[in-house]
Design a protein that fits this description.
Structural class: alpha/beta
Strand order of the largest sheet: 5-4-6-3-7
Shape: elongated
Helix content: 25-40%
Oligomer: single chain
Distance between the termini: 73 Å
Number of helices: 13
Length: 330
């Protein structure tokens, strides 16, 4: 590298810029590690949301307020500065702005934009303590067997994720908040499940609540709360990979597709885990159940005219824990 004034160039004459994407963890600076603090100290500019920049105003750095990866990239590309610190909440590898920004910078560099602009950007991600790590530590839980999902600005199939997993960690938001999620659980007969909710993690006003889902409905929590849903009786994984015998279903006077036909039919559908499936004339629900066992992130609608038959389907749903089946009496 060859310095010229306050700029650095490589052997090809490209202006070198360094971008650190720094995870600031759960919020409280007491949990920020030394490497992150050292990196922020040597940056010329700090970039991030206003609330994040406010936390590091004491460094007296020039700042640029943005949480949009494209505007951040354009600012870095055009800026006369050489070292940038992009502040992102939580850990850089856990549902973070880092993913989009990293992909954008790498894509632009690989497609020779640096030659066009005579700029080469070097990128480094600095990890941090995630909300998942912190929250499970407060609950004295291991998190290596927890399924984790985010409801931030994305569609999330709560019931399927709960049905297939013993513990489900959720990053909630204002719309898909703990109270609304618990209302969904209760509507599927899962109101007795234990839930753990954390808000304002690491701050002085931190609050952790643990109760049955039904008792959480109506409570108000901060917009960026986290929660864990505990399901002691998830779907039996063995049932996902086998053909279920006819004798295992609760039967009545409704017709039932036989095991051989059912297994071949479901197999031929080539189902993916997030499919939406309609079983019209579901009968006892045998096909619905076997298909639903393939939909770990999807939903199956079992449609039947008879209320008596719908009751039978619900009994089989409860037996096999396939709460991702919606029964429609029509």
């Amino acid at each position: 590298m060859y310095p010229r004034g306050n700029k650095v160039f490589n052997r090809k004459g490209y202006y070198m810029k360094k971008v650190y994407i720094v995870g600031i963890g759960i919020g409280n600076r007491d949990f920020l590690h030394k490497r992150a603090i050292d990196v922020l100290g040597k940056c010329n500019v700090l970039i991030g949301a206003e609330r994040m920049l406010d936390s590091f105003a004491y460094l007296e750095k020039e700042s640029y307020t943005s949480s949009d990866s494209k505007s951040i990239y354009e600012y870095i590309k055009k800026s006369s500065h050489s070292i940038f610190g992009v502040l992102v909440s939580g850990d850089t590898g856990f549902y973070s702005l880092s993913k989009k920004l990293t992909e954008l910078i790498q894509d632009k560099q690989e497609n020779c934009e640096k030659q066009e602009n005579n700029v080469e950007i070097k990128l480094e991600n600095i990890p941090a303590i995630s909300s998942l790590q912190y929250f499970t530590s407060k609950l004295n839980l291991s998190w290596d067997n927890i399924k984790y999902v985010s409801a931030h600005g994305r569609k999330l199939n709560i019931i399927s994720n709960v049905a297939f997993n013993e513990k489900l960690f959720i990053l909630t938001d204002n719309e898909m908040n703990p109270s609304n999620i618990c209302e969904i659980l209760k509507s599927k007969g899962l109101g007795n499940l234990k839930v753990s909710i954390g808000e304002n993690l690491s701050y002085d006003n931190e609050m952790i609540v643990e109760d049955k889902a039904a008792n959480i409905i109506g409570m108000k929590f901060a917009g960026l709360s986290v929660m864990i849903i505990h399901n002691d009786e998830p779907i039996n994984k063995e049932n996902i990979y086998r053909s279920i015998g006819d004798w295992e279903f609760i039967t009545g006077s409704a017709p039932m597709t036989k095991s051989e036909v059912r297994t071949v039919s479901v197999g031929k559908l080539h189902l993916k885990d997030d499919f939406i499936v309609y079983d019209i004339g579901a009968g006892t629900g045998s096909v619905s159940i076997e298909a639903a066992l393939k939909l770990s992130n999807g939903t199956l609608y079992a449609i039947e005219k008879s209320e008596e038959t719908c009751t039978l389907i619900r009994e089989n749903i409860n037996k096999f824990k396939t709460y991702n089946v919606e029964v429609i009496n029509n």
